[in-house]
Amino acid sequence: MNNSLLAMLDAWYPARDSRGWVLGVVYKTQGSAYRKPGAFMLFDDEGGQYGLLSGGCLESDLHRKAMASLASGNASTVRYDSSDEDEMTFKLGLGCGGVVDILLQPVLASANYLALGELRERLKARMAAQYWQRIPHAGEAPAAEVAPAAAPSFAGRRVAQLQARNDRQYLCTTVSPEPHLLLVGGGIDARPLVRMASGLGWEITLLDPRPANARLEYFPDATRISRVAPENMASQNWFASIDAAVIMTHSKPLDADALAGLRNKTLAYCAMIGPPHRRDEVLAHAGISPERLAFKLHGPAGLDIGGELPESIALSILAQCHAVLYGREAQPVASVWPQFEPASGAEPPLSQIHTKANSTRN
Predict the structure, then answer these.
(1) What residue ranges do the domains of the chain occupy?
(2) pLDDT tens digits for 199-235?
(3) Strands of the 159-165 sheet, one edge to the other
(4) 152-201 per-position pLDDT tens digit
(5) CATH of range 180-325; options 3.90.550.10, 1.10.510.10, 3.40.50.720, 3.40.50.620
(6) What is the pTM of this model?
(7) What Rg, from alpha-carbon coordinates, does the chain have?
(8) Residue 252, class by beta-carbon neighbours within 10 Å (0-12 exposed, 13-18 middle, 19+ buried)?
């Protein structure tokens, strides 16, 4: 199981009544923190933990506090301050140096399961949502609701803000589906790319009209396998939600057909494997100039990270795709860290949260 929100909700849903559950959410931070506001985690009364809020430093202590909240039936909050040597957080070994406030809410049928079922259905339908959680007073019952939302600027983005409503404080988290990646070409080299993208929780459509390719037994992690002709892919129901595409059929005519099928699709990322001269030949075969594409074509695909095995090539391509989707330039974290360091306890801009969170691991 990956740590995406939908994967957590899929683990919870069939066992929602057979086990006791608590939802943990980061609702406020100061300074450096592994996760930022809007990070979700689920705990069950059999010891199960789904997701991460601290990278493993606090989860055992959080689980105990979550079970206490479940026993009381009330929502609660907990603060971990790793800057205070007398505070339990310091003793637990959280080394990020920041303050993290976490909301714990029992997931009870009497509280409509915190609307998690509705949130799950929206994510499965690839619709964005606003998830509102009330910050509780002492001894207060859990409360949450879901509202429709416009999708953020790119798939997978999560934005969380504390807001006032009816003289109360709420955490409003805008969530959207994880990226939808289209792979055109189901050869051996596509297998590690599908596995890695699946590990990120991405939706994966694998398209290859050739019967010998893209066989289900070799791609169990693909969301779907399509046999439609690449030039006709726009007629498929899944086509509208594609965020990124990689063309890797090892056939110039099929690659050209894929470009023809995608040419008018607005994509955050599209790449083609093979050297520059092959890219140009495919474009010529398709009768398309790069300027006529609705997206930037990355070719050759991937980042220069070394290695020649299919796994290395897949890592190179996925790293480039991930960086583009999240608005990054794929630089070493150490070289860009100073600009993300918050001043006077202020939070970094939302566009910087992803890199900062990934670079404050203990």
Answers:
(1) 16-175, 180-325
(2) 999 999 999 999 999 999 999 999 999 999 999 999 9
(3) 144-148, 129-134, 168-175, 159-165
(4) 656 557 789 999 998 999 999 999 999 999 999 999 999 999 999 999 99
(5) 3.40.50.720
(6) 0.87
(7) 22
(8) middle
